[in-house]
Design goal:
This protein has about 140 residues and is mainly alpha-helical. The chain is built from 7 helices and no strands. It has a domain of about 50 residues. It is extended, with a radius of gyration of 20 Å. InterPro entries: EmrE-like, Mg_trans_NIPA.
Length: about 140
């Protein structure tokens, strides 16, 4: 869980760095944003955050890791208010509180073990009628 939280924290920082770069470049009217080193630092931080999320899926079931994506939303909201001087509305606070409450309940009451998946199980699932019908309807 700590790896996922840290990864989402890095992602939120990176998104705000990228937005800051976009705003700064548009105000100056200078060269494109992708020529800025700061923008590339944001991309690098996003990659590191996503790598952290990917690593977290190896240690815990997806039902625990996926809801922690709300950490990124909450931290982005706080960073954007403090550093980018954006306004914070009551609906933003309510949405953040509901997201954190839902994440708490999901992480607290989710099963803390994941089933062991083997190659044979995947192979059988790929040739089952249920999957084949789904796949054909998708095509």
């Amino acid at each position: 869980i700590c790896i996922a939280v840290c990864g989402n924290f890095l992602i939120s920082i990176s998104l705000n760095i990228q937005k800051y770069t976009h705003v700064r470049q548009s105000q100056r009217g200078t060269k494109p944003y992708y020529t800025s080193r700061l923008w590339w630092c944001g991309i690098l931080l996003m990659g590191l955050g996503e790598l952290g999320n990917f690593a977290a899926y190896g240690f815990a079931p997806a039902s625990l890791i996926a809801p922690l994506g709300c950490v990124s939303v909450i931290v982005s909201a706080v960073i954007s208010v403090v550093f980018l001087k954006e306004t914070l509305r009551a609906s933003d606070i309510l949405g953040g509180a509901l997201a954190m409450t839902g994440t708490y309940f999901l992480v607290t009451f989710a099963p803390h073990s994941s089933p062991h998946v083997t190659a044979n199980m995947v192979e059988r699932s790929l040739v089952s009628w249920t999957f084949l019908i789904y796949f054909v309807s998708l095509l």
